[in-house]
Design brief:
Elements (H helix, E strand, L loop, with lengths): L14 E3 L4 H5 L5 E7 L4 H16 L7 E7 L6 H6 L7 E5 L10 E3 L6 H13 L18 H4 L10 E7 L5 H8 L3 E2 L1 E7 L3 H7 L6 E5 L5 E4 L6 H9 L5 E2 L10 H6 L17 E2 H15 L5 E3 H17 L4 H16 L4 E3 H15 L22 H18 L15 H13 L3 H14 L6 H19 L24 E4 L2 E4 L1 H11 L5 E2 L5
The structure holds flavin-adenine dinucleotide.
């Protein structure tokens, strides 16, 4: 592969096409396609790649209706196909309708505006350019419904929600929300126009855009959205009870089997009610319990780098763990013991013996059993340990900022992001899901060195975790009760979300403020702890 191919990687939410795959992919496809033919030596293409990736991420849930691809014309193997498609300038944007014949060479988009919002609206227009007969199979109607079609639905029972977005004729919000919900079952989204007076009258709507919701039980109501923006509307609908992302048949990147193998098999546990805006000490204790007693215990001896990673991890936890005094005491004892050992190699059984011994003397321990609360899954094999491990490290980054000198003189020499470096090394060395570890290592190698402060440490982990959520959304490890989505949700933190030039953006300062509050000691709930 030339350097070119690396402009886009398999991690990006788009399809990398080549001479061999272009025609089979686009011809007779059940979805429409928007393909950027670029050249890796073209400076503008390099600069533009960030926008194209952001666009692809923005519309990745639309892919059953319209997919985004790239093809690098600078690669020798692609010379012929680029000639065949008459690509003379880079980048060239071509779109292909669904079910297009093999002879189709696509339609070139000549618009000068290549910003995300304009290209996204182009995608909507491409979809609307299909007839009822050749529309992509999975694309719901994007045309407005009339009051004559919608009003009879009022009061009717149904097995799903129906959301009606009432908007001005030139607004794209309704169509974008319809497409955002394409992968979700349990809700149908329709749009209607602000010019439809009987509808406005019946629903008492006077501001646009607005969402009106018909519930499965026949009742209907306005849906209040804090901000009248696409992201807020889509998030509200995705959060309705029973609305679920349909699972992808197979996920190439998730290593579900391995994640599942890490989970405890207790499936008969009673459900513990919990509040999503809290962090539960029981989850943090269970993370440590699982880590020490199960994950680490698969290593019969520790030496060299492994021993160093384990020592540093224990030291960081001993210094920063926000929970029960007893756990902290245990971690401190373990840390002191590890640091005082003259040995280069220790049998892991010795660690287990120390932990057991402490436990016997005190009569208390890190939950004698695993007890997931905020990390409960809707069935065994979902959530649990990996959820609690993320939570633990988020808590540690926030705690490190709150107690900046805690790691002084501990021998943990890990630059300006010690918690992240310890996490990186732990995940790389011990995390049982190896593929997950490799993905995480890739992300750390890309950008962890740029983290220069404690607040960036908090934000880096949040951003990286969202990248993982994004990649895993709809995969088999996605718990239907807790679908992976950008976090925090609009209901947890509305001020974290904004829109700029029609594109969802995070308000960095508000996110930071939220993370500090969410993962601080005051927000730790002792409920269900031992
Ligand atoms: P999780 O993603 O585990 O999140 C736990 C909790 O953290 C959430 O409930 C929420 O309260 C909070 N949260 C969510 N997002 C954020 C955020 N951005 N910032 C702060 N807090 C947040 N699984 C795979 O199948 N493939 C992988 O490649 C993979 N890589 C992983 C890498 C690491 C380092 C870890 C720890 C886990 C990985 N997993 C992977 C597991 C996966 O990320 C989830 O942990 C698991 O599927 C359970 O998901 P969950 O719904 O409980 O939420």
């Amino acid at each position: 592969l030339g350097g070119a191919a690396r402009l886009y990687t398999e991690e990006d939410p788009l399809v990398i096409l080549s001479s061999g795959s272009l025609k089979p992919t686009i011809s007779n496809s059940s979805s429409a396609w928007l393909v950027q033919f670029f050249s890796s030596w073209c400076g503008h293409c390099i600069q533009y790649s960030g926008t194209w990736k952001a666009l692809a991420g923005d519309v990745q849930d639309w892919r059953e209706a319209i997919s985004v691809g790239v093809l690098d014309c600078a690669q020798e193997e692609n010379f012929d196909v680029c000639k065949d498609f008459s690509i003379k300038f880079y980048p060239t944007f071509k779109y292909f309708r669904a079910h297009s014949p093999p002879t189709d060479r696509g339609t070139t988009y000549r618009g000068a505006d290549r910003e995300i919002q304009s290209v996204r609206q182009l995608m909507v227009n491409i979809l609307q350019n299909h007839t009822r007969m050749d529309r992509p199979q999975h694309c719901p109607p994007l045309e407005p419904y009339s009051s004559a079609e919608l009003l009879p639905l009022l009061g009717q029972r149904s097995d799903h929600f129906t959301a009606i977005i009432v908007e001005e004729p030139d607004s794209y919000v309704g169509r974008e929300v319809i497409l955002d919900l394409l992968q979700y079952s349990g809700v149908q989204v329709r749009r209607a126009l602000s010019s439809d007076l009987p509808l406005l009258d019946a629903l008492k709507i006077s501001t646009f855009p607005s969402i009106y919701l018909l519930q499965p039980n026949g009742t209907h109501t306005h849906l209040h959205s804090e901000k009248k923006l696409r992201f807020f509307f889509s998030s509200l609908l995705k959060a309705l009870p029973g609305v679920q992302r349909r699972l992808q048949a197979a996920s190439s990147s998730s290593s579900v089997g391995q994640v599942e193998a890490l989970q405890d098999q207790h499936s008969t546990e009673p459900w513990r009610d919990f509040d999503r805006s809290k962090v539960y000490l029981a989850d943090l204790d269970s993370a440590l319990h699982y880590l020490l007693r199960v994950e680490m215990a698969t290593h019969s001896t520790l030496e060299g780098e492994e021993l160093q990673v384990f020592k540093d991890f224990i030291t960081v936890v001993a210094k920063l763990y926000p929970g029960g005094a007893w756990v902290v005491k245990l971690m401190e004892t373990l840390s002191d013991w590890l640091l005082s050992l003259p040995l280069q190699r220790i049998p892991y059984q010795a660690v287990l013996d120390l932990v057991d011994n402490k436990m016997r003397i005190s009569g208390v321990f890190l939950g004698a059993e695993l007890r997931w609360v905020g990390c409960q899954g809707s069935r065994a094999g979902l959530r649990g340990y990996p959820c609690s491990l993320w939570t633990l490290f988020h808590v540690l980054t926030v705690r490190h900022e709150a107690t900046p000198t805690a790691l002084d003189n501990t021998g943990v020499q890990l630059g300006s992001a010690p918690v992240l470096q310890v996490m990186r090394r732990y995940i790389r060395t011990f995390f049982g899901c190896e593929v997950c570890g490799r993905h995480f290592e890739q992300m750390a190698a890309e950008s962890l060195d740029s983290v220069q402060s404690r607040e960036e440490q908090i934000l880096w982990l949040w951003r990286t975790h969202n990248r993982v959520n994004n990649r895993l959304a709809g995969s088999l490890s996605d718990d239907p009760l807790f679908p992976k989505s950008p976090w925090p949700s609009t209901s947890l933190c509305s001020s974290c979300h904004e829109e700029k030039n029609g594109v969802h953006v995070w308000n960095r300062d508000n996110v930071l403020h939220f993370l500090r509050r969410h993962y601080c000691i005051a927000n730790l709930s002792p409920r269900y702890s031992l």
